TrEMBL record:
Ranges for domain GFO/IDH/MocA-like oxidoreductase: 131-266
InterPro entries: Gfo/Idh/MocA-like_OxRdtase_N (IPR000683), Gfo/Idh/MocA_oxidrdct_glycsds (IPR050463), GFO_IDH_MocA-like_dom (IPR055170), NAD(P)-bd_dom_sf (IPR036291)
Record's protein name: Oxidoreductase domain protein
Record key words, sorted: NAD, Oxidoreductase
GO terms assigned for molecular function: nucleotide binding; oxidoreductase activity
Organism lineage string: Bacteria, Bacillati, Actinomycetota, Actinomycetes, Micrococcales
NAD in keyword set: yes
One Pfam family here: GFO_IDH_MocA
PANTHER family, A to Z: BCDNA.GH03377 (PTHR43818)
Keyword NAD on entry: yes
Domain Gfo/Idh/MocA-like oxidoreductase N-terminal: 6-120
């Protein structure tokens, strides 16, 4: 690749706005086409962001200037759209999850390998300076050897703010598959692959209401558990507890704690590209009259903060450099395998071993500059 890489976006819904804002600001990327099942919606986004071409999925795939397709369709369409892009000889970046079933996701990766194109999978928050600064601190040994982790995402549910929330409670979503990719991608990037999971899930309401937008007051069905608790075991021997809920009166997002032999560290919200990282050291031996307050030590955040689309930029640069990109399809597949196994465990009550694995996830250099022209 020489010069800016031509990108085509498929899916002009809510999430496309932040992708377009960022991708149109990166010198190494040029958004040349937008497609949607409602072409007028693609046209509106194209006009807003100065994109020269718009239309349907077929228009994007048939555009010779499109080298990489960004798949922002709903989860149940991810595999179908990504597979068509691969068949057209395009690299693919897909929103999470990679797919809804292991067979389709595995076939997608095999087809991409055979076609000589790459697949990348959200979330790309793991490339953000918040998470990467925490990753460097752990690698430098500030908490010693990691032993166990705790994560939590608790909210009343996206139906309170999303104008079209039904898909977030349908098969392939719920808190497990909608929010789980952020937390488990981060943990796998830090600690390595997950070996097994056990889970429990609950669906307290079978129907919910839309609270905002033109369809406010309408009801929709809840198809999947709206609260899930997961126990995980990592290949490296660590273990973790994880809560993901759309039923909590307590709003608590982004809890990621890793506890090690020489300290405990609190990471930024994995759904953000920045945020504070702090750690504490052990108090030592308790003696009479000893204070139990612990000193929090801040980790300096290094790097440029942008947002969604950073994984696409890393992909095009990695392709040009002949190196692995960070948020690979293989990482996306392993996380999907973990989440589907947790879903199966919640249904059966069994501890399930994870068949897939993934290579170590490379770090992002401190001097990675999204706004530099490198191609």
């Amino acid at each position: 690749m020489t010069g800016p890489v031509g990108v085509g976006i498929v899916g002009a819904g809510v999430i496309s706005q932040t992708y377009l804002e960022n991708l149109t600001s990166f010198p190494d990327v040029k958004v040349v086409a937008i497609g949607d099942m409602i072409p007028e919606r693609a046209k509106a986004k194209a006009e807003e962001h100065g994109v020269p071409s718009w239309g349907t999925l077929e228009d994007v795939l048939g555009n010779p200037d499109v080298e990489l397709v960004v798949n922002l369709t709903i989860p149940e369409s991810h595999i179908a759209v990504s597979s068509q892009a691969v068949a057209a000889g395009k690299h693919v970046w897909t929103e999470k999850p990679l797919g809804l079933d292991r067979e389709g996701a595995r076939q997608l990766l095999q087809d991409a390998d055979a076609a000589g194109v790459r697949v990348g999978s959200a979330p790309d928050t793991i490339l953000g300076p918040g998470f990467q600064s925490a990753k460097r601190a752990i690698a430098e040994g500030v908490i010693g050897t990691p032993l166990f982790v705790q994560t939590a995402f608790q909210t009343q549910g996206p139906d309170l703010w999303h104008p079209e929330p039904a898909f977030l409670f349908a098969k392939g979503a719920g808190p497990l598959l909608d929010m789980g990719p952020y937390y488990f991608s981060a943990l796998v990037s830090l600690l390595g692959p997950i070996a097994g999971v056990a889970a429990r899930g609950s669906r307290f309401r079978t129907e919910r209401h839309i609270h905002t937008g033109p369809r406010a007051g309408e009801t929709f069905s809840v198809e999947v558990p709206s609260s899930v608790q997961v126990l995980s075991t990592f290949e490296g021997g660590q273990h973790g507890t994880h809560l993901l809920s759309f039923d909590s009166a307590l709003e608590r997002h982004g809890v990621v704690e890793i506890h090690g032999t020489e300290g405990s560290i609190v990471l930024p919200d994995p759904n953000r590209f920045d945020g504070p990282t702090r750690y504490v050291k052990p108090l030592g031996v308790f003696r009479d009259g000893m204070k139990t307050e612990q000193e929090w030590i801040d980790v300096e955040q290094q790097g440029t903060v942008v947002g969604r689309g950073l994984g696409v930029l890393d992909m095009v640069r990695a392709i040009a450099d002949g190196r692995p990109h960070v948020a690979t399809g293989e990482l996306g597949f392993h996380v999907l395998d973990v989440l589907l196994s947790a879903q199966d465990s919640a249904e059966t009550g069994q501890y399930l071993e994870i068949d897939s694995t993934v290579a170590p996830v490379p770090p992002v250099p401190v001097d990675f500059d999204p706004f530099a022209s490198t191609l």
